[in-house]
Amino acid sequence: MTVRLDYNSFVHCNNNPVNKVDSDGRFAAVAGSVYFVPGVVEVAIIVTVGAIGVYGVYKAVSWAYKKLRMLELMVISIKFINRKG
Questions:
Q1: How many helices (H) and strands (E) does the chain have?
Q2: Which sequence ranges are marked TM in the entry (predicted)?
């Protein structure tokens, strides 16, 4: 006899039942099988790597913009302080 606690109850949603839902249990099988279809594998890998690359560029540009914006605000505040003094 097996104990129910031996099973991972949240494997269908990557152990994150709050943010991820797989109501019928078929999504994980479909999503995972895309990488095993001949001819589709190359496209799926290229799309995945491309998406990761685009996300990396987005994060880098976002970080640089925030840093430049902070620098701009510091320069403006220094000019304002020097003008008053």
A1: 2, 0
A2: 35-58
Average pLDDT of the residues in 37-60: 87
80 with 55, same domain? yes
Name the one residue in this structure whose structure tokens are 């403006």.
Answer: 76
Domain co-membership, 43 together with 83:
yes
> CB atoms < 10 A from the CB of 5, how many?
7
Token reading at 30: 């479909």
C-alpha to C-alpha distance for 51 and 73, rounded to whole angstroms: 33
Return all residues near 24 (Cβ < 8 A) that are at least 6 apart: none
Q: Model pTM?
A: 0.48
43 plus 23 within the same structural domain:
no
Give CA 5 to chain center in angstroms.
31
Domain range spanning residue 84?
38-85
